[in-house]
Amino acid sequence: MRAFSSWPFLSGNASSSDGRARRGARAGAVGVAVLALTLTACGGGDGDADAKSVDDASVTIGSTAISNSLDPAAALSSVGRTYTKQVFDQLVTFDEDGEIAASLATEWERVDDTTVDFTLRKDVTFSSGAALDAAAVVANVERVLSGDPAYATVAGRIATVKEASEVSPEVVRVVTSTPDAILLNRMTLLDIVDPATFDADRPAGTGPFQVTGYEAGTSIELTRFDDSWRATDSVKDLTIQAIPNPATLSSALRTGEVDVAYGLPADVATQLEGSGFTNVHKPAGSSAITSLIADVEPALADVRVREAINLAVNREEFVDAVLGGFGTPNGSQLLQKGYLGYDDSLPSYEFDLDRAKSLVSEAGVEGLELPIATTALFKAPAEAVAGYLNAIGFKSEVVVQDLSAFIPTLLMKSEYPLLYWQTDYYDLRDITSVSRFGPTAPGQQAHIPVNEYQDLYASQSGELDEAKREAQIKQMAKILNDEAGVLFLAWTDNLYTVAPRISDLPLSGDSLVRAEAITVSE
After folding, report:
1. Which structural domains are found in the chain, ordered by start?
2. CA separation for the pair 227, 231 (Å, rounded)
C-alpha cells in the first residue's frame, strides 16, 4: 500500500490504471448529444416565432435565495451576483464567451509586472447623478481593502491588489503586491459604487437598473436607469424574488407570478419543459466532485483504492439520472473546455465495474466503510455516489450536515473520508478559484497533500507568460489524473426555467442573467 508521500509522480514516474481508457465512440456520442442540447438551450426561450417583442416589459426572476445585502461590497452569496450585475458595473467583465471585455474601462495597459492602468469610459454617470471618474474607482478599492470585516469576501476576491491611485480623472492605476496573472479576472468582481452612497440604504451604480424597493431576504424591486450607458428599451421593471421552497417556486412559475425560475431541481425543470416552459442552461464553470481524504482513511493512500472509486461511477448515467441531463460527464480533470489549462488529451476514468471490484479485492479493502459527508443541497447526488461505491464492495452511506457544520468539515478538519461538494470557478473563470487543492494554512484540511501540485498552484498564479502558465495548469491536471486523486463526476450547468412569454434569456460569460437584454413577447 502506497502512501500519498510516495506517489510515483513525486519522483517523476507517473503510473496509469489498466482499467482506464480515453472515452470511446459511445461516450463521444453522449458528449455530442449533451453539446447539442446545450447549444439549443443556452440562447433563450422557445417563444412563438410569430410573437412580437415588447418594450418596457416587467419581469420577475424567482430564486431559492437572493442577495443578503444591497451593498455589493458586503454581498456574501453567489446568488447575490444576479442582483449586483443589474445595478453595478465593473472595470472589465466577461462577455458571453467568457472572454475579458471592456466595461467601465475601455482600455488597459500593463505598466510593469505589478501595475496596470485602466482608461475609463467617457460620460458615464451613476444613478445618483454623479459622474464616474478615477477618484470614484480608487475610493471603491480603498473601501474594500480597509480591513472592515463586512467587506472580507470581496477583499478576498481581489486579494493581490495592494492599492489604487488616480493617474488622471480618466485613468486609474491598480498595483498588486505580487505579479498577478488574473488581475483582470479579479476586476470583474469589484462592483463600482458612487462613493457618496457608500452608506446609503440604496447604493448607486452605473448599471441599467436602480433599486426602488427592498424587503430584506424577500424581494428586490428594480426600475430601469434610463441614463445608464447600457440601458435598453426591452425591460423597464425587474423584480428579484426569493422563493426558498422549490415546489412553491415551480408553482409561481406555472401561475405567472414569476417569469424566470433559478434553483429548481432537475426533475421539476424537466417536467415543466413538457408543459410549454423552456430550460435555459449553460456550463457554469463548476465541477461536481468527491474529495478523498486520506488523513481520515489511510486506505485512500493506496492508488488502487482511488482508482477503484473512480472506475465505479457511470458518469453518463449520473448526469442523466441525477443532474437531469444538465451537465457534462467528466472523469478526467477539474477545468472544463474553454478555461485556461483544460487538456483534451487527458484520459477519462470510464465506468468499469469488473475492474473496480478487482482492484478492491487486490487492495484487500472489501467492506471498507466510506461515509460521504455533504449538505442537504447535494444529498441526492451524494447518495448516487454511495450506491456506486456499495456496488463494488465498499460500505458507503451519506451523512447530511448543516451548511454551518459542513463548511468546517470541508475547509478545516473532516471526520469523514469522502466529501461530496461542488467546486465553482465561474467567478474568476480560472483555476485560482479552487484554492482547496492549493497550499493549506495550519489547521486547514488538505484535499491534495502533494507538494508538487501545491507548488505549481502557487507558481501559476504569478506567471504572466500565458503559455507557460497554461503548461503549469495542465501539469496540475495531469497530477490529479495520473493518481485518481479526486473523484471527478461532471461539469454542471446553471439552469434557468423560463415562461413562454420570455423568448430570449441572455446569459453572461459567468452564467448570470443580463436582464436589460431579456426579450419579452406578447
Report:
1. 53-88+207-277+499-521 (3.40.190.10), 89-197 (3.90.76.10), 283-493 (3.10.105.10)
2. 7
**In this structure, what C-alpha cell is assigned to residue 131?**
459622474
Eight-class DSSP state of 8: G
The DSSP string of 262-278 is: ES--HHHHHHHHTTT-E
* Host H or E run for residue 222: strand 219-224
Q: Which three cell numbers stand for residue 31?
A: 458528449
DSSP 3-state percent helix, strand, coil across the chain (nearest 5): 35, 25, 45
Rounded Cα distance between 509 and 134, Å, is 26
Q: Are 270 and 94 in contact (CB under 8 A)?
A: no
Rounded Cα gap, residues 340 and 430, in angstroms: 7
- Please name which of 115, 120, 162, 165 lies closest in space to residue 138, comparing C-alpha atoms: 165
Within 352-401, strands assigned E span 372-375, 398-401
The length of the chain in residues reads: 522
Q: How far apart are CA 194 and CA 163, in angstroms?
A: 19
Q: Which three cell numbers stand for residue 14?
A: 507517473
Instruction: Report the alpha-carbon distance of residue 477 to residue 484 in Å, rounded.
Output: 10
149-205: per-residue pLDDT in tens?
999 989 999 999 999 999 999 999 999 999 999 999 999 999 999 999 999 999 999
Burial 378-390 (b: 16+ CB within 10 A, else e): bebbbbbbbebbe
Confidence class for position 77, pLDDT limits 50, 70, 90: low
Beta pairing partners, 213: 221
Cell numbers representing residue 123 in the block: 460620460
3-state secondary structure of 46: coil
Place of cell 449538505: 375
Q: Is the pTM of this model over 0.90?
A: no
Report strand pairing: 486-498 vs 260-262. antiparallel
Q: Which amino acid is at 474?
A: K
DSSP 130: P
Strand pairing class (260-262; 57-63): parallel
Residue 166 neighbours by CB under 8 Å, 6+ apart: 133, 134, 135, 138, 172, 173
Q: How far apart are CA 459 and CA 447, in angstroms?
A: 19
